[in-house]
Amino acid sequence: MADIGSPIKIGKLTLKNRITMAPTVKFDFTDDTGIATDILVQHYKERAEHGCALICVEATAIVPGGRFCRGHMGLYNDEQTESQKRITAAVHAAGIPVIIQLNHTGMTGNPELGPVIAPSAVDTRSGEKAHAMSIDEVHEMQRAYIDAAVRAKAAGYDGVQLHACHGYLINQFASPVVNFREDEYGGSIENRARFGAEIIAGIREACGPDFLIAARISGFEGSVEESVQTGEAYVAAGCDYLQVSNGIDDADRMERDETLPYNAVCELGVRFHEHFKGRVPVSCVNSILSPEEARYIIENDLCDTIDLGRGILADPALPDAILTGAPYVHCFECKRCQYGPFTQHKCPAEMKRRIAHA
Ligand SMILES: Cc1cc2nc3c(=O)[nH]c(=O)nc-3n(C[C@H](O)[C@H](O)[C@H](O)COP(=O)(O)O)c2cc1C
Q1: Above 80 in pLDDT, residue 252?
Q2: Structural domains in the chain?
């Protein structure tokens, strides 16, 4: 039986246990400058100090046009790189490694921030067609991901996580639902995985063998088996860690087995783990909100690590609670943290915690 408190090697890093923080954006914690602010530094410091083995800093834009909104962190200029050094220093001071998620919104982009681009000319949220990227634009965008990784390394990050799920640009390339290209970046699974795989190979070359490269991959594009093959392409290119979540094609087609004590998205990670066991570490995520759920997955060898999203937003002490049984405040599952500006939609668990500690 695996112990959730036992160390695990991921790439060249050794994590002290199996609990990691999932990337979770805080829209109004920065502004149009996209820099890491005091409140962001404090936010990650607090979550690094309570038992977690790895922090993954939130989705961070690789170019201005790839942001969700104006108040979104970026890693495309020197001021932003410099500001990120405060997050890495704060997390390292707590004795754990930290990576940052790199993202471009692609077809889900905000037209106020630039042309909305995608692998193919698909409909966007605004009803307009996305601009289908030319080969030169594909290569330029791959370069932007690699440059952002180089900036992350300069800022002191131990690695990066590519956002390759939840319907953003790398996921769009991998998905048969929105990628209709007829060149080497579309068609077969191998071709659709090429956009992400070449970025991974480029980061490995630019950042060296010790730099952790994780991919937060969609566990269902076409099928789980097809997504596993995309994962294989990323691993062959140099990816050290597959962190599995949902994507574009799973909405109605992911069957839920009601006999399983974890949810359907989590199950995608479990399926990846079955495939990559002993070869590549895999994490799962989604609705792991209590110590019992977290321990169940690791103790039954269903995944290598578990990622905490809302649970660790609600209370940074959740990892301590998982490891030692210490008290914590359970997430209310109210979805307020997903509404956008955090300062207007207060987390009730956080309010309860602050009152208890006042
Ligand atoms: C407030 C909030 C912000 C999020 N931001 C990101 C993000 O930046 N990148 C990402 O890949 N997923 C993001 N997610 C998804 C979470 O990482 C996670 O996959 C999801 O919340 C399910 O896990 P949970 O049930 O533990 O919260 C976000 C979720 C929430 C609630």
Answers
A1: no
A2: 8-326 (3.20.20.70)
